[in-house]
Write a structure and sequence with these properties.
The protein is mainly alpha-helical. The chain has helices at 15-21, 40-45, 51-63, 69-80, and strands at 2-5, 13-14, 30-32. The chain has a three-stranded antiparallel β-sheet. The longest helix is centred in the last third of the chain and has 13 residues, at 51-63.
């Protein structure tokens, strides 16, 4: 997944570089170059899953290879630990 500036004058970046950069150098916001689409079957398949598993399914396409699946699941578990 690559991220592009809303102003179109900054280089496209990976998820990791986008997170470390913040605002694009041209003053725009970084947004996904393409938006992943969940199929109807994907959405139905989430029924009965935990918030953590749903978060993983929905967010995984946005992070590319920045984190392994296990690392990302661990981050999600830590984020939801207080809920």
């Amino acid at each position: 997944m690559r991220y592009i500036s809303t102003r179109g004058q900054a280089p496209a970046l990976s998820f990791e570089d986008t997170m470390l950069t913040g605002l694009a150098p041209d003053g725009g916001l970084y947004v996904p170059e393409t938006v992943p689409v969940l199929s109807a079957d994907d959405i139905v398949g989430m029924q009965g899953q935990s918030y953590e598993e749903i978060a993983f399914t929905v967010m995984r396409p946005f992070i590319g290879d920045t984190f392994t699946d296990d690392e990302f699941r661990d981050l999600i578990a830590k984020a939801y630990a207080g809920f």
